[in-house]
Amino acid sequence: MKILKFGGTSVGKPERMHAVAKLVTADDAPKIVVLSALSGTTNSLVEIGQSLSEGKKEQAKGQIDKLEAHYRTFIQELVKQDAARAKATAVVDEHFEFLNIILKISFNEALNKDILAQGELLSTRLFSVYLEEAGVEAVLLPALDFMSIDEYEEPEIPKIKIKLGNLLEKNKGQRVFITQGYICRNAKGEIDNLKRGGSDYSASLIGAAIQASEVQIWTDIDGMHNNDPRVVKKTFPIEQLSFDEAAELAYFGAKILHPASIWPAQHFNIPVKLLNTMQPEAKGTIITELPSGDGVKAIAAKDGIIAIKIKSSRMLLAYGFLRKIFEVFEKYRTPIDMITTSEVAVSLTIEGSPYLDQLLKELQPFGSVELDHHQTIVSIVGNEVAATPSILKKLFDSLNEVPLRMISYGGSRHNISILIGGQYKEKTLQLLNKGLFGLE
Question: pTM (2 decimals)?
Answer without folding.
Answer: 0.90
